[in-house]
Amino acid sequence: MPLSWGDISADRAREIYQSNVKVISIITPSSGSSNGNPVLVKYKLDSDYGCSASMPAAADFQYSIDSGSNWLNATADPADPLHSGISGLVVDSGTNDFYFAWSSGVDLGFAAQSSTIAFRLRAYDGAAYSEYVSSGVFSIDMLPDAPTLYSPANLYFDKDTTPDFVWLIPTDPGADRMQFRI
Questions:
Q1: Predicted TM-score (pTM) of this structure
Q2: How does DSSP classify residue 163?
Q3: Residue 129 to residues 3, 44, 126, 144, 172: CA-CA distances in angstroms?
């Protein structure tokens, strides 16, 4: 539905189009959560502007490292099996769930640690964009925890000259290969 504003008798008239697809919400990551790489963004799209048939849509994804003051385009991880893609998303008159696998390691670096990350997205119906919908602020922590020595416990050493050291090796949220030197 085009709307005109301003002096429509002059050539300065502008048209505004409402997108037939809108972003309902960002479900994950939730506010306050801690994430690694990739960050799985679950969101809902809807086409409730009088469209009864399914329609293709696209989505535009951005992240912020400063709680939403500045925004950068997010890199997708298309290899993630839950990633829905960024275009060709089929939306009907009901609410549809989709996933965007954000490759946070590519955008932030695989040693990133921040508690001021935010995410936003908007839908595109082929003619117009919807408004942005933003997530709450969440954390990225791709640094692994330190390994924990289980054995020998409590600084106990016997007379064995070849003791076995048993460690609990943490998982790496950044998906990098870890190496420890003892």
A1: 0.70
A2: P
A3: 15, 15, 8, 39, 37
